[in-house]
Amino acid sequence: MTAPLDAPEPADKPGIVFRTAGLTRRFSGFTAVNNVTLEIPEGGVRTIIGPNGAGKTTFFNLLSGLLPPSEGRMWFRDREITTLRAYQRARLGIARSFQITNIFGRLSVYENVRLAVQAVHDGKASFFVPRGSMGNLAEKTERVLHDVGLYDVRDARAENLSHGDQRRLEIGLVIASDPPVLLLDEPLAGMSPTETQETVDLIQRISPGRTILLVEHDIDVVMAISTTITVFQTGAVLAIGTPQEIRGNEAVQRAYLGELA
What we know:
Blueprint: E1 16-27, E2 30-41, E3 44-49, H1 56-64, E4 71-76, E5 79-80, H2 86-92, E6 94-96, H3 109-122, H4 136-147, H5 163-175, E7 181-185, H6 193-206, E8 211-215, H7 219-225, E9 228-233, E10 236-241, H8 243-247, H9 250-255
Parallel strand pairs: 3-8, 3-9, 6-7, 7-8
Antiparallel strand pairs: 1-2, 1-4, 4-5, 9-10
Helix pairs in contact: 3-4, 3-5, 5-6
């Protein structure tokens, strides 16, 4: 059940991309996200960390519309989005990647990105558009491929890419719509050190002019690239601060058994 319609709406604040009020999600008696009231400023890399089961991915699913809240409300900039579905939020500029890579393995890298670009341009994706007839779509496709560092392997089948390149291809599909907000759920999972650094470089390269919300477990990466860090524990917000503030927070250190020290 969502919050009552007469619940107080927060005053519009310039520079806030997401607001939540009492956001809660329960699953058969288990509370995954517990009464989260939070403001996420516009711009930068805003990272969410926490132990396994802390509610990070569920919170992402609530923001992106994949799950409805049990209680509470959400706003994207000055618009309430509590009841909007995922595709409606995507049209507002909220783009989401997932823990599991989501690409068309049997298509080429180019065709994967082209379909994403075409879907944004005309609202549909067709496999039967000759490359030479795409005009501006081809230019945009090639620009995305350059942005994610995959132009040189554009004709390779996506399923033949390394794990790191597949994750970067998925990010390319997400940025094809030029979204102002990206939600990236564990984009570095399963990567080698070299792949991790390449993907970190990509995130930093595409972050100017966007707000990137990141769920990540690699603390060294989190501390290196984050503008702010929000720490979740048992479905609630434990702490918010800069990397320096979070590193020195005793409650966070206890939650992570000293691994931030």
